[in-house]
Amino acid sequence: MEESTLIKNGNYHNYYEFRSDDSRSQILRKYLEKLWTAQHYDRLTLKDGSIHMLDIGCNTGQFTAKVRQILTEVTKVGNVRAVGLDLDHKLCERAKRGFPNMEFICGNVMNIAQCDQPGTEDLIKLCLTRMGIQRFDVICCFSVLMYVHLNGGDMGLRKVLDYICANGIFLILELQAWQKYRDHVRRLKRATGQSYPQYAELKWKGGRGMLEKYVKTYIQSKGFKILGESTEKNEFNRQLIFFEKKYIS
């Protein structure tokens, strides 16, 4: 991919060279151990005794594998079937070679979320069908929603959130703050001379937690409750937010 495309979508090929072992793992483990209780097991698919997990924006799969390990250890479920989704086919191929015991799908979540349009295909629904389940027990989305938002605008982000909420029971989100948006827009301009056409039209924006509040409120309107938010932030000034679907039909 061209540099402009890589920067626009955040699919960095050397991502784990500078973020190989930050504090996310420790924060994730700490809060899952605190939030995961026996009552949650009644809400899981547990088909074939497995927890089913989707990681959106998996890159080369290193952190997907770490989350899978943490979920396995915290929940005491013998098997976590992990699926990773990334829009970069080169990253997906590297993930498949590095972690052959997990499934990796190449696809753009923004396109998948709008696949009700003629001629489009929902790769995630096909995966759910192969697994024999209706939805994932856990959906993770670490530091990728900013790129959805910048490329797709408020409507594109809402479409993706709708899709995530419809296909998951527990959600683990790592959001980027508004200042990161502004920094990234400037970076794209400096590096390529390009811009995000919908950036100026965004209504969901604002520092001091305002942007994050829009996202959290919207997810709650879709029938989820906030289980917890990490009080500490990682080295990139981002926190983890945990949601649970209130009712499962």
Structure in words:
This protein starts with a helix and ends with a strand. By secondary structure, the protein is α/β, with parallel strands linked by helices. It contains 10 helices and 7 strands. The protein has a 7-stranded mixed β-sheet with strand order 3-2-1-4-5-7-6, with helices on both faces. The model has no long low-confidence stretch (mean pLDDT 87). The longest helix has 22 residues, at 145-166. The radius of gyration is 17 Å and the shape is globular. α5 (89-98) links the parallel β2 and β3 (103-106).
Q: Give the helix level as a range of percent.
A: 40-55%
Computed Rg: 17 Å
Low-confidence stretches: none
**How are strands sequenced across the largest beta sheet?**
3-2-1-4-5-7-6
**Content of β-strand:** 15-25%
Major β-sheet annotation: 7 strands, mixed
Separation of the first and last Cα atoms: 41 Å
Q: How many DSSP helices? A: 10
Shape: globular
Average pLDDT confidence is 87
Order of helices and strands: HHHEHEHEHHEHEHHEE
Specify the structural class: alpha/beta
**Could you tell me the number of beta strands?**
7
Write the layout of secondary structure elements.
Elements: H1 3-9, H2 15-18, H3 24-35, E1 50-56, H4 62-75, E2 79-86, H5 89-98, E3 103-106, H6 109-113, H7 123-131, E4 136-142, H8 145-166, E5 168-174, H9 178-192, H10 210-221, E6 224-229, E7 240-245
Parallel strand pairs: 1-2, 1-4, 2-3, 4-5
Antiparallel strand pairs: 5-7, 6-7
